[in-house]
Design goal:
about 55% helix, single chain, mainly alpha
Length: about 140
């Protein structure tokens, strides 16, 4: 077993950094390096969602898990005005995506109608036709028509 694996095993048990360094005969910097590398891996790795039954009571879900806006905000009932459920399907609110991409009105409506097609109490074809209408207007505007 590698030294890094031994350090990770002790860390998993909750052993202090000083105790790990003493037991394994390494410097505290070696232990901190392993911790840092694990954090770097965690940033780039796609974490697996833990099943609900393994989550400690009161512990919030990670952002990578499917979390409703109500759960994130601590609300118990849906808010159809500020956070409509059909606008946040897939774990992200459409407005957040639109603002992140700095889309104009027409393109924002294309994204909005495509993302909610069939999720609201409406005909999905009608939502897609609305998206197409806004997309055609954007294309015409860019062509200078």
């Amino acid at each position: 077993m590698t030294m890094s694996a031994k350090i990770r095993r002790y860390l998993a048990k909750g052993t202090s950094i000083a105790e790990i360094a003493k037991r394994l005969g390494v410097s505290k910097n070696n232990v901190w390096t392993v911790i840092w590398k694990e954090k770097q891996k965690a940033k780039t790795a796609k974490p697996e969602a833990k099943p609900e039954e393994k989550r400690k009571p009161g512990r919030p879900k990670k952002a990578t898990e499917q979390m409703t806006i109500e759960e994130w905000a601590g609300e118990t009932k849906p808010d159809p005005v500020n956070h409509p459920p059909h606008y946040r399907d897939g774990g992200i609110e459409v407005i957040d995506f639109i603002e992140a991409k700095d889309l104009n009105f027409r393109l924002a409506n294309v994204v909005k109608y495509v993302s909610r097609a069939g999720k609201k109490n409406s005909d999905p074809v009608q939502d897609l036709e609305k998206a197409a209408w806004y997309l055609k207007r954007e294309i015409d505007a860019r062509k200078g028509a």
